[in-house]
Amino acid sequence: MLSNSIKMLNKAKNEKYAIPQFNINNLEWAKYILEISQNLKSPVILGVSENAIKYIGGYNTVVNMIKGLIKDLNITVPVSLHLDHGKSVQSCINAINAGFTSVMIDGSKFSLNENINMTNEVIKYAKEYNVSVEAEIENIDDNYDNNSYSKLQDIIEFINKTDINSFAPSIGNAHGIYKNEPKLELNLLKQINENVDIPLVLHGGSGIDDEQIKKVIKLGISKININTQLQVEWSKQVRIFLNKNKNVYDPKEIINSGKDAIQKRVMEYIILFGSNNKY
Ligand code: 13P
Questions:
Q1: Which atom of ligand 1 is nearest to the CA of 206?
Q2: Which of 24, 28, 63, 207 allows an S-S link to 178, with CB 3.0 to 4.6 Å?
Q3: What is the CATH number of the domain that holds 45?
């Protein structure tokens, strides 16, 4: 069944493991991830960006597709369907109306005050529907070379003035393929964790080495977002398959040729994050 992410994230925070958020790009992605999460008894968050939502068909299509998969595949682990980086209040409202159980309001391009106001608007609406809300204040870069870090005082002010369920700090992480080896600011994370009560989220999880992942989980990260790594590994496998099988034209075979690559990586992440056997 779909649920919000409050209970799963709080349990992860208390027991020091991290819930994976795997971003989905299509039906197959969702199916592969749900199957492995069920096999490993791991709660899971399926993240969908505004772009991916548009690609798949719209908010309602995504919700009904995921509900259908949960039913037909007999998925019993907790699954949260999350709008990743909702860029406007309206986008979050659209997701909630369609049946998403979790949203991120990303007001990081706005001033702290504007971000607080936007976030509070989303929270007010989300509470009526029992939907969880994640937010960030400092833009987590898309230029693959993150130089922006959240300021502790701003984070404390933001969390005191909103009632968010989880917070995504900027600690040297970035989305996409890192240009240089990422070095996370663990001291900053430690300070944030000492001053903040709610679960913390690491965006840009692809490309961060296992040792740093283990350290950030100890320092309060309770959710880790992964997208790029699954795309890279799926496309690599599909390219090999197409080069070897010049006469195949069935899209089912072509898309599915990347299945094992995705499922292997999802399994490795779940075990690294420690979310297996939690339900
Ligand atoms: P990556 O694509 O770098 O894994 O980041 C995913 C993410 O943070 C989605 O919000």
A1: 4
A2: 207
A3: 3.20.20.70
Domain assignment present for residue 1? The answer is: no
Task: Choose, from 72, 84, 142, 163, the residue flagged as catalytic.
Answer: 84
* Annotation marks residue 163 as catalytic: no
Query: Which class for 277: exposed (0-12), middle (13-18), buried (19 or more C-beta within 10 A)?
Result: exposed
Q: How far is CA 133 from the centre of its chain?
A: 12
Domain count of the fold of the chain: 1
> Ligand 1: which of 225, 234, 266, 272 to mutate, most ligand atoms within 8 Å of CB?
225
- The closest-lying atom of ligand 1 relative to the alpha carbon of residue 230 is 4
Structural domain span for residue 24: 6-273
What angle (nearest 5°) sits at the alpha carbon of residue 205, between those of residues 199 and 207? 155
**Could you tell me if residue 253 is inside a domain?**
yes
Closest residue by CA, ligand 1 atom 1: 204
Q: Which two tokens stand for residue 248?
A: 């195949």
Per-residue pLDDT 10s for the chain (279 aa) are 899 999 999 999 999 999 999 999 999 999 999 999 999 999 999 999 999 999 999 999 999 999 999 999 999 999 999 999 999 999 999 999 999 999 999 999 999 999 999 999 999 999 999 999 999 997 776 544 555 688 899 999 999 999 999 999 999 898 999 888 888 999 999 999 999 999 999 999 999 999 999 999 999 999 999 999 999 999 999 999 999 999 999 999 999 999 999 999 999 999 999 999 999
Note the pTM of the prediction, 2 decimals.
Answer: 0.96
- How many residues appear in the chain? 279
Within a domain: 153: yes
For residue 279, being part of any structural domain is answered with no
Ramachandran region, residue 258 (left: φ > 0; alpha: ψ -120 to 50; beta: rest): alpha
